[in-house]
Amino acid sequence: MREHGPLHGLGPPHPPALKFAAEPGSLIVLATDGLVERRHEDLERLAAAVEEASGFPEEACVHLLEGMTPDGGGDVALMAVRLNRLPRAARRPEPGPGRTR
After folding, report:
1. What confidence tens digit (pLDDT) does each residue in 18-50 have?
2. Would you kindly state where each structural domain of the chain is located, as residue ranges?
3. Residues in CB range of 57: below 8 A, 6 or more apart
4. Residue 48 contacts residue 5 (beta carbons within 8 Å)
5. Per-residue pLDDT tens digits for 44-98
6. Count of H helices and E strands in the chain?
7. Which residues fall within 8 angstroms of residue 58, CB to CB, at 6 or more apart?
8. HSE value, Cβ hemisphere, 13 Å, CA-based, for 5
9. Chain center to CA of 56
10. Residue 57: closest CA among 34, 80, 40, 28
11. Taking the CB of the first residue and of the last residue of the chain, which one, N or C, has fewer CB atoms within 10 A?
12. How many other CB atoms sit within 10 Å of the CB of residue 82?
């Protein structure tokens, strides 16, 4: 029997947390490795394709799938979210005299 990594669910309980700063209007893309088969080359292509993506997240997903998987691709899961500024009524008031956050 060939040696493999640990069985699914037997590794560390949680993956490490990832924190990043994102501005309103930023496009956040989550994808499985089916979108980038050749790691270094395809990650650079993916980054360039995300930079080119504009409009609604659905349009960005179509653009990325067409650009990264021209032959229809394999097993790919893709999700895109564009961050919007909160409506003024939903924002917290700025701290001022007598106000705290």
Report:
1. 888 888 888 899 988 888 876 667 788 888 888
2. 35-83
3. 27, 80, 81, 82
4. no
5. 888 888 888 877 899 999 988 888 887 766 688 999 998 887 666 666 666 767 6
6. 2, 2
7. 80
8. 5
9. 14
10. 80
11. N
12. 15
